[in-house]
């Protein structure tokens, strides 16, 4: 459902419900007040008639002498579209304005109570009439009841009048509904205008314009939404720029070995009677460039695979971290010896954790190998392992050349090199630390670095002892 329609309906309902309740209450109040007024009016008429009947001696005198009183009772009965009945002490009807029950007995609970001095007033909602009883006193004996006056009065005219009031109220409600619907539509149009502007800005973004202005600060909500969108767009722009740089770097890195191979091959072809030694040297250089190209491609494929990998592609098992570190250092000691680098492992405690043995070994190997390659002569590399009840910690510290402060935040970027000349000299592809960071993140861990140029670098790793798949983390 459209938000515009929904808001219009909400405004209409919230506006109409009080009006409908008010109309219902007013109609009910009007009806009740009319009934109460009719009841009081009947009581007054009954009292007047009862007093006249008492003073005239109507109950004992000849009715021919009370023709005017009979006419008055008939007029009252006609006025209220009702009926007046007078019952004597023998419960016999002596007067009936309908002339239907004269001379007959009239026994009812109200009449009996009235002879005992209890007036009654009853409204029959189903039949729509009032029934009122009032005693007629003996003119000679005070407080002696000689008869009962029973009057019934129709309330059809009150019901009809109430229906007319209700009909006018409904007509008013219909008019107000139409007016409020139009008003709600206009109000919603202006209320949603900022969101429409925001939508237009997002449409431009969807068409590829990542620099589109999305700031709409008409409301606090639209301002907060715009700020959130700007943050997302900033990340998208950074990601797009990173993608472009990555493509450019990949192209450059893959092209460089091919260019070297082409130069070497052209040099060989341009020479006549090339000595075997020179030919072998050139072919070894070509082979090295091919190996370098192959290493770049393998690292790229590994990064792509890690980018697409999910938790179910992790081969998680219980791994003795101490043993894995010893194996890594054992494989790298021959490289360390060539540079006279002291390579040591300090295990503060035995650690067993959930991990992907191959991937974790690759990440540690990259860190230790970099520490060896970018070290100084007769330097040192220390690997430290520790753990607590939740995580295990690995530190790889070296006495190497260090990393400039402005380069520290970029070292995990793909193809980023602090010293490009030395990186190519030692055979680096610029992807090792990016692979390492991916591996650590796949284990739900974190990696950080501290470095001082000329003094050395320390990489710190923290990984949970127990591996929990992402689906369970979200739940």
Radius of gyration in whole Å, from Cα?
A: 52 Å
Class derived from helix and strand content: alpha+beta
Estimate what percentage of residues fall within beta strands: 15-25%
How many β strands by DSSP?
Answer: 12
Mean pLDDT: 83
Order of strands in the sheet with most strands: 2-1-5-4-3
Globally, the shape reads rod-shaped
Order of helices and strands: HHEEHEEEHHHHEHEEHEEHHEEH
Distance between the termini: 30 Å
Number of helices: 12
State the helical fraction.
55-70%
Which spans have pLDDT < 50 for at least 5 consecutive residues? none
Major sheet details: 5 strands, antiparallel
Structure keywords:
475 residues, 17% strand, alpha+beta, single chain, 5-stranded antiparallel beta sheet, 12 helices
Commentary on this structure:
By secondary structure, the protein is α+β, with helices and mostly antiparallel strands. Helices cover 56% and strands 17% of the residues. The chain has twelve helices and twelve strands. The radius of gyration is 52 Å and the shape is rod-shaped. The relative contact order is 0.06.
Please give the structural blueprint.
Layout: H1 3-56, H2 67-79, E1 83-88, E2 93-96, H3 109-115, E3 120-124, E4 129-137, E5 145-154, H4 156-191, H5 193-206, H6 220-270, H7 276-308, E6 316-320, H8 321-338, E7 342-347, E8 352-356, H9 357-373, E9 380-387, E10 391-398, H10 420-426, H11 432-442, E11 446-452, E12 456-464, H12 470-474
Parallel strand pairs: 7-9
Antiparallel strand pairs: 1-2, 1-5, 3-4, 4-5, 6-8, 9-10, 10-12, 11-12
Helix pairs in contact: 1-4, 6-7, 7-11, 8-9, 9-11
